[in-house]
Write a structure and sequence with these properties.
By secondary structure, the protein is of the alpha/beta class. It contains nine helices and seven strands. The chain has helices at 24-35, 47-58, 74-88, 111-139, 150-153, 159-179, 197-200, 204-212, 222-233, and strands at 15-19, 39-44, 64-68, 93-96, 142-146, 185-191, 244-247. A seven-stranded parallel beta sheet has the order 3-2-1-4-5-6-7, with helices on both faces. Strand 4 (93-96), helix 4 and strand 5 form a beta-alpha-beta unit. Helix 1 (24-35) runs parallel beside helix 2, helix 1 (24-35) crosses helix 9 and helix 3 runs parallel beside helix 4 (111-139). The chain is globular, with a radius of gyration of 17 Å. Bound molecules: NADPH dihydro-nicotinamide-adenine-dinucleotide phosphate (NDP).
């Protein structure tokens, strides 16, 4: 990715937190926001795992750092959000991107796998929103939650994941209504099929077949999602809140 010119650094002076920033979509988002001049807190399960993204971001912006937390732990998230604010000087943008799958047909899905996916994908999003809300009200900030088209359509073998992502849509709308009066915009992006570690286990033949179902004729790249985040947290998103923006090449049309 090329470095943005000075005029394109419209996030200069802003502090962004991106969860799931070690790889895939989260890494692309962190690097995009850094290229726009934001200071970026790159969060993964451990700081070590997020360190390469933080290094890449450091080449694009003045403040970038790696942090580790299990997003499903509300106490640990609260401590981390305080630490980030102290170290980076505030909080203006929150991107809840960390997520997992534990796919299985309902009759074979364990209660443990159901609970874990909800804890990480849905409660993890709520944890960061709850701990960041005061700071975001102060900064009139922006939140982008990463959902999934599966949260809108459902998917066989993904009851836990689809429920978690549908929950993210409801959470987004509720938070948008609650925080609008304080000048905070909260939106959701529902990606379609994006080439990352999460989708790499899909059989190549099945992936090829899926491609034929995508009207735009290609599988999505992490940067397709990052560029949509960049829009929502930038001036283009000033009057957008409570929305779920589907970014899937037309897959769900
Ligand atoms: P990856 O599997 O490539 O990356 C997942 C990221 O989440 C990693 O950074 C991982 O950190 C982090 N993470 C996982 N569990 C936790 C946890 N408990 N605490 C903190 N961080 C955690 O995923 P993608 O980039 O593909 O997906 C990113 C988001 O986009 C997810 O929410 C996913 O559901 C969603 N999405 C993805 C689609 C796709 O086709 N790829 C389609 C639709 C939605 P670590 O490296 O430390 O494990």
């Amino acid at each position: 990715m090329t470095t943005a010119s000075q005029s394109e650094r419209y996030l200069e002076g802003k502090v962004a937190v991106v969860t799931g920033a070690s790889r895939g979509i989260g890494r692309a988002i962190a690097e995009r926001l850094a290229a726009r001049g934001a200071k970026v807190a790159c969060v993964a399960t451990t700081a070590d795992r997020a360190s390469e993204t933080a290094r890449n971001c450091s080449g694009l912006t003045e403040g970038a750092a790696a942090y580790g937390v299990d997003v499903s732990s509300s106490a640990a998230v609260a401590t981390l959000v305080d630490q980030i604010q102290k170290e980076l000087g505030g909080l203006d943008i929150l991107v809840n991107n960390a997520g997992i799958t534990k796919d299985q047909l309902l009759l074979r899905m364990s209660e443990e796998d159901f609970d874990r996916v909800i804890e990480v994908n849905l409660k993890g999003t709520w944890n960061f929103m709850k701990s960041s809300a005061r700071a975001l009200m102060k900064s009139k900030g922006r939140v982008v939650n990463i959902g999934s088209v599966v949260g809108l359509t459902g998917n066989a073998g993904q009851a836990n994941y689809a429920a978690s992502k549908a929950g993210v849509v409801g959470l987004t709308k509720s938070m948008a209504k609650e925080l609008a009066g304080r000048g905070v915009c909260v939106n959701c992006i529902a990606p379609g099929y994006i080439a990352t570690d999460m989708t790499s286990a899909i059989d190549p033949k099945a992936a090829e077949a899926l491609k034929t179902e995508i009207p735009l004729g290609r599988i999505g790249e992490p940067d397709d999602i990052a560029r949509t985040v960049e829009f929502l947290v930038g001036p283009g998103g000033d009057y957008v809140t409570g929305q779920t923006l589907v970014v899937d090449g037309g897959l769900t049309l």
